[in-house]
Amino acid sequence: xxxxxxxxxxxxxxxxxxxxxxxxLCPAICDVTAEGRRFLNHRAIFPSxxxxxxxxxxxxxxxxxxxxxxxxxxxxxGDGPIxxxxxxxxxxxTMRRVTGKTLEVxxxxxxxxxxxxxxxxxxxxxxxxxxxDPDSHGHVYHRAASFGPGRVELPPEEARPxxxxxxxxxxxxxxxxxxxxxxxxxxxxxxxxxxxxKSMHADVLGSETHLQGIRDADACVARVSRSxxxxxxxxxxxxxxxxxxxxxxSVAHAIPxxxxxxxxxxxxxxxxxDVAIAPQGAGAHLYLAERAQxxxxxxRDWLAAQPWCGxxxxxxxxxxxxxRPGGSHAMSFAMRHQDLPNAHGVxxxxxxxxxxxxxxxxxxxxxxxxxxxxxTRPFLTISGGGFAPxxxxxxxxxxxxxxxxxxxxxxxxxxxxxxxxxPQS
Length: 425
Description:
Layout: E1 6-13, H1 27-35, E2 37-43, H2 50-59, H3 63-66, E3 72-76, E4 81-85, H4 91-99, H5 108-111, E5 118-122, H6 126-130, E6 139-141, E7 147-148, E8 152-153, H7 156-159, H8 166-184, E9 188-193, H9 197-202, H10 208-233, E10 237-243, E11 249-255, H11 257-263, E12 275-279, E13 283-288, H12 296-304, E14 309-314, E15 329-335, E16 337-341, E17 347-353, E18 366-367, E19 380-383, E20 391-398, H13 402-410
Parallel strand pairs: 1-9, 1-10, 2-20, 5-6, 5-9, 11-17
Antiparallel strand pairs: 2-19, 3-4, 7-8, 10-19, 11-18, 12-13, 13-15, 14-15, 16-17
Helix pairs in contact: 1-10, 8-10
């Protein structure tokens, strides 16, 4: 049961960059914005990638605190770091096996387990879905597998997986509105769409494919918004948090960084565990085995000389981007961003870090994961819960501010989180 009639609906349109939230493409989002407060200077984390972003939204902490580094992550299991794909369904158990735990801090689902619970429905990667609730305090629905409390896998007739496309988004949205919001009525309902991220990866930014992905996501927003209106008409105090996790920019060049490091004599071989590169798209994490720690200055100098490399953060500098030095994580870097238009006039060109396992998106298509001006600008609007209708906040808001804002609405402690509850007027 909801806390004193207070509930939260959190909806994320994956990859939706802030400057594409406009009335001709997003009438439903704009209608929600007119009813609430828009945060114009909303910021992504580094890397601007979905899996670590999901953990930061779900906890209110930076990756340095919650412990999930990005879309790819390295673990040293004794003979040097090995890079794992966080998006794979088995990664939660891999992380638990290697580190003895999953996230280092509680998620909203854990905080709400005795206060009306949480139901998460996600149409992105399994890792992004599961890190909303990796220890299964509530319910998580995903096409790979769905789980209830105690990590009990739900049977097919309850799981009812959907396809990772616009049709799947709408099917999941319909189920979310009818079953989760109206029937089950958890304190927190989370809906995470694959569009427009899916469409932006699939084609050139500004193409009809991309724009249709935005329209499809907006249709899902309209459906959820109607349900929120119905709940409010019944007297429920619903906080509606609507946003995205990052934006995207156009791929200019794909750079096989690890291969180039081998050629430069800084890494022993493609699959060697002395130096490991975890590509994040337009960024990367670098992990060093104990035997290779002395190479860090030479690696930094080499990276700084490469035209495709942007900002570099090593050691304590990692704290400035929400990470921390420790273990084998020695460095992170963003790839080059150029404030230039593509063929459709969409601003932002990025180079991406690739590997044999992660070849990245084709040139011209959308990608993210770095520190580009547009990929780091998701959107956020909040209605209900005391947020002044039709207002705009020009100060900086961050993904880590969403969880404490939700906890404030519910009257629950916000102990120790990195984020701050957002201003209501």
